[in-house]
Write a structure and sequence with these properties.
Elements: H1 2-27, H2 33-60, H3 64-94, H4 100-108, H5 110-118, H6 123-140, H7 150-169, H8 172-184, H9 192-212
Helix pairs in contact: 1-2, 1-3, 2-3, 3-6, 4-5, 7-8, 8-9
């Protein structure tokens, strides 16, 4: 259990610090190493505090309470990761952080703000949110034995990198098709027909997100 908890919580710190570095490069180019360290210290401190909070809570709890806290950590970490990503995208767009008052206002006037919020989404942020959700989901599923195969890991990484690059330089549909077929090569058996159906389903979902929710996705 402790290994799964660490795998879940450590990426929170990495994600927060990495996105802060992206913002520093965008808003404060040429910052010294000392300035970068000072600006990222709060994100590092939050990530470590979040890690210690759940480790200590699970250590002190016993029986059913420990199990409840273990799964509560998964849900809470998913919410924190989503807030971190949304805040990053909002700051990159507006230059200011998302505040609690902003969330309250959006909740009270959701109909007026839905379209504005949807346009804040990019292909990269959508892919990152999907990745975060996938990681959390994998922590909730029963563990299964897995052999370390560098070839498969390289194929998965190549599929994700190819998706991001093709979505940026061509369009997102091409990126989705490449990602599905490349990742399928890492499986035990490759089926072009099965991969085509998965790619078609993902493209359909992306089109629905774009047309119905107004997400700013570069599909064409």
């Amino acid at each position: 259990m402790w290994g799964r908890l660490l795998v879940l919580l450590v990426p929170v710190t990495i994600l927060g610090v990495w996105l802060k570095l992206v913002r520093i490069r965008a808003f404060y180019p040429g910052s010294s190493l000392f300035d970068v360290a000072a600006k990222t210290s709060s994100d590092l401190a939050f990530g470590l505090a979040w890690l210690l909070l759940w480790l200590v809570a699970c250590q002190l709890a016993r029986g059913a309470l420990r199990v409840v806290l273990f799964y509560l950590a998964h849900v809470a970490t998913l919410v924190v990761n989503l807030v971190i990503v949304v805040n990053h995208e909002y700051m990159m767009r507006t230059g200011g952080p998302v505040t609690w008052d902003y969330f309250v206002t959006v909740f009270e006037q959701f109909g007026e703000y839905a379209e504005v919020l949807a346009t804040q989404a990019t292909a990269e942020s959508t892919a990152l949110l999907i990745g975060v959700a996938t990681i959390v989901q994998s922590r909730l599923l029963p563990p299964e034995p897995m052999k370390l195969q560098l070839k498969n890991i390289a194929l998965i990484l190549a599929s994700l990198c190819g998706f991001a690059l093709l979505s940026h330089y061509l369009n997102m549909i091409v990126g989705i098709v490449f990602m599905v077929f490349c990742a399928a090569l890492a499986g035990d058996s490759f089926s072009a027909w099965r991969s085509a159906k998965i790619a078609a389903a993902l493209v359909l979902i992306a089109v629905l997100f774009q047309q119905l929710l107004g997400l700013n996705l570069p599909l064409y």
